[in-house]
Design brief:
heterodimer, A: 308 residues, alpha/beta, Rossmann fold, Alpha-Beta Plaits, 2 domains, four-stranded antiparallel β-sheet, 14 strands, 36% helix, B: 251 residues, mainly alpha, 0% strand, globular
Amino acid sequence: MNDKEIILAARGLTKSYGTRQAVKGLDLTIIRGECFGFLGPNGAGKTTTIQMILGLVIKDSGELRVFGLTIPHDLRAIKSRLGVVPQNDNLDPDLTVLENLLTYAGYYNLDSARARSRSLELLKFFALDNRRDEVIQHLSGGQRRRLLLARALVHEPELLILDEPTVGLDPQARYLIWQRLKALRDNGLTMLLTSHYMDEVARLADRVLIMDQGRIVAQGEPGRMVTELVGTDVFEIICDEREAASLSALAASCSARAERVTDGLFIYAGHDCPLLEARVRETARWLRRPANLEDLFIQLTGRLLRDS
Amino acid sequence: MGMGVLRVVQRNLRVWRKFMFSSLVGNLGQPFLFLLAFGFGLGREIHPIAGYSYLQFIAPGLTASAVMYSAAFETTYGSFTRLGTQSTFEGILMTPISPAELAWGEIIWGALKGLLAGVIMLAAMPLFGFWPSIWALVLLPILFIAGVFFAALGLIMTALAGSYEFFNYFISLVITPLFLFSGIFFSLNDMPPVTRVVLRFVPLTPIVNMARIFCYGRPSGPWPLHLALFIVLTLIVSWAASALLKRRLIA
């Protein structure tokens, strides 16, 4: 990784709100051209970290450098090269689609001809060109999200920060957004992405970092991490307590990890185990599927609800 | 600084153009109605004050108060909407624009709206049968400074407000008393000395005085000193508004 240009580097980053420590010593490196997946349950400290990168939250300690420049000293220079898609829709509701982009381009001091051509180009890319004079209130959720993305790209940023870019959208709207993000990634845009849609993150991200309660719990290449930490296959079995206990014992003998869930058992296997498989096939309701990032996420952060 | 302030003003201007008419009616309705009710209505029962008919006496003061209302409302109800419900400030601060630029952009914008309200009041005076003197041109920058002061005062309230209800305190305890007791409706010269001194420190009073002086083309008295003090006060209040807004926006 040393031969590649470091876009963002955080060392020992901390932030507390009163007595609650939101971020507890975060180390993070993003290199040019990679899509970095930033995962964690609600309250893990993801948004706080992003806010620190934007200078909207002042870090308590640690070091934060973006494009080799330091925060807060070079904040303006940093922010002029950053694009942000926030979690909350903060489009200008009184302006039209195109006006939103032009106004934003103004904040980055783009000259008006450049702002216009760039805006029209982006509206096309995000399939919004037929809505350009529409008032924001009349847009669907998916259209608003796409406009937020277009807005974040209007000044051609070198790093795009996406805080849950598809939250609350239907599958069709999500699909379109992930497709566009993939195109941007393939074009070499560096991205920092948070999302709770694990399959989509797994497909897009080159590396992921999983954070919980202000700390990193794992990071690496998603496919490899899943194989190493979870296994290759997952058996989901619906069964009673007695059956679950005997299956768990069998799983242990195959060095597969078993997890009790409300109405049955999950078994995470790293290699083939004919004995276990044969026994699973005898149960009434079961399925076998490849292990995925969500399994890893749950393994590392637990199934407990986070309502901090 | 500089460019960012301009961009914030431009953004507000872009939105304002769409709601121009309702905005002007909202800002100017009240002073016009006061001018009609008190100037025409009550004014006929009142003997001239310091050589002016009552209508003439209150018109310049109502110009000053129109600036105050327009500027202060913009940076309370207007800015608070952009801070809260619309998250406009959040959107702006994701860009290179700094909190200080945002604050100054809001203040300058509020001041421009105040100035516009003042200019319209001055321009409407011939409708009531008298023309402002050429000295009223000197009044324009003074009205703008007054706009800055009241816009900054409003923005302080916005930075402290938890909800729109908070502005009731500001309007009832600050703006309305200023409107009533800054010498718009009665001459402070006839007041008992203590009252006079107290009312002289009401921040709208010097603006009302200057408005009256320049409207009728008789610049005299210690107005340059009052203006200088008002500018100092304006800078202090603006600085405080910028600092408080930053504290509100940055955690």
